[in-house]
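Re: that backbone. Tokens:
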């Protein structure tokens, strides 16, 4: 067993073409080699920041931990806030983040080895 305090896990800025609109940071509580079957992290979006439309090869679970944001698919857009849990099925085009005036953070859980493909908007 391994126990960590998120307050002691360093946050790193994320710089990839998948994100737009503002600062995004990620905390990775456990090294990848410690995880056998899942990827896990905490992603924080500054107000105005979100990711672009994309899909994953595995299901994705988002647990909203702070603030208010949006999770959207091609056919639906939902406002989410702390305490909400979202299931995004494998292969579903979607985006999520904090496109409005408030920041948002979520825990993300996916199968280890899941691939992300950005969809041109």
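Recovered sequence:
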């Amino acid at each position: 067993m391994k126990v960590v305090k998120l307050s002691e896990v360093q946050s790193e800025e994320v710089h990839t073409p998948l994100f737009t609109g503002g600062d995004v940071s990620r905390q990775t509580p456990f090294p990848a080699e410690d995880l056998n079957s899942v990827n896990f992290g905490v992603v924080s979006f500054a107000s105005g920041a979100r990711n672009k439309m994309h899909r994953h090869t595995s299901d994705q679970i988002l647990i909203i931990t702070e603030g208010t944001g949006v999770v959207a698919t091609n056919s639906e857009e939902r406002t989410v806030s702390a305490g909400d849990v979202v299931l995004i099925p494998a292969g579903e085009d979607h985006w999520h983040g904090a496109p409005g005036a408030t920041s948002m953070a979520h825990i993300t859980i996916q199968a280890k080895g899941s691939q992300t493909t950005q969809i041109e908007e």
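The chain has a mean pLDDT of 96. The chain has one domain: 6-118.
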